[in-house]
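User: Sequence recovery, please. Input:
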């Protein structure tokens, strides 16, 4: 039979074993609870995340490896707060045409170069600007072009007044003062010879209008509807043309003297509105001559 000391020792051992067992059970419960919580979190994530993705919220990096960005397709546009740039979302609807780089009815020369779609600058348009350099083909020789012989038995002549010639040509070549240097004045010629074939058709209608100025300065405008109004045939080093008011203009020039870099004579050949022109000038500057030709090519 156990004595009191043995009983006490027995009871103490049982008590210690009970405490150890309780600690072991608490550890098992804590471990199981933690596992259950993790499983619940995983299940919740598996259920909620697909719904979030279907709702339009996604987080990810693009294929270039850039920093992940947040995209929300439920908004109509995205704003970059750093530069306030608004980017419209892609749409299947046809987008309106973008403004062109030019404004209809306004020359590109008058537009603001920094913003082609803005209003034109305050600088005036330059339709009559004379180029610093324009093509002048140097004359190397000339031959007089005699008028074609007309058999009197088949042709007859009429003398027209200035008014008759202006009506026939459809332009007034006696009032070009706005295109001429101030010292040049119309010579007031008032008769023009027109040659008809016996059939009644006009075969020669050469009309020359002369403007005279100081120190031998002069300009003549010859016009014809029936042929080239050539009094001379000129040999040229080159045959380049200038585009003036939409017309191809051949300009020739004769130097004042050998070795000079100044022209004492100019001529220009061109066609406009069914009329063939030859314009000649003596002792005019290049700018004066170009302006006169420019004015005549613009006649309607």
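Assistant: Recovered sequence (300 residues):
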């Amino acid at each position: 039979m156990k004595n009191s000391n043995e009983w006490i020792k027995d009871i103490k051992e049982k008590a210690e074993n009970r405490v150890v067992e309780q600690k072991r059970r608490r550890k098992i419960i804590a471990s199981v609870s933690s596992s259950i919580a993790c499983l619940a979190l995983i299940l919740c994530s598996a259920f909620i995340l697909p719904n979030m993705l279907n709702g339009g919220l996604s987080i990810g990096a693009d294929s270039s490896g850039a920093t992940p960005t947040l995209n929300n397709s439920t908004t109509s546009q995205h704003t970059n707060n750093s530069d306030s740039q608004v980017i419209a979302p892609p749409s299947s609807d046809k987008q309106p045409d973008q403004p062109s780089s030019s404004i209809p009815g306004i020359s590109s020369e008058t537009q603001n170069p920094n913003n082609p779609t803005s209003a034109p600058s305050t600088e005036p348009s330059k339709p009559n600007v004379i180029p610093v350099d324009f093509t002048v083909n140097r004359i190397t020789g000339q031959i007089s072009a005699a008028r074609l012989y007309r058999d009197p038995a088949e042709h007859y002549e009429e003398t027209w007044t200035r008014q008759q010639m202006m009506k026939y040509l459809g332009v007034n070549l006696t009032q070009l003062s706005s295109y001429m240097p101030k010292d040049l004045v119309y010579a007031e010629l008032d008769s023009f010879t027109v040659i008809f074939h016996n059939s009644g058709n006009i075969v020669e209608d050469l009309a020359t209008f002369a403007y005279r100025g100081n120190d031998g300065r002069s300009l003549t405008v010859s016009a014809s509807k029936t042929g080239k109004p050539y009094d001379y045939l000129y040999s040229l080093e080159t045959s380049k043309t200038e585009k003036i008011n939409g017309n191809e203009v051949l300009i020739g020039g004769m130097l004042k003297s050998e070795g000079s870099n100044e022209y004492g004579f100019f001529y220009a050949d061109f066609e406009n509105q069914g009329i063939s022109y030859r314009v000649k000038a003596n002792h005019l500057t290049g700018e004066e001559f170009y302006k006169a030709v420019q004015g005549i090519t613009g006649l309607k």
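Helices lie at 4-54, 162-169, 286-297.
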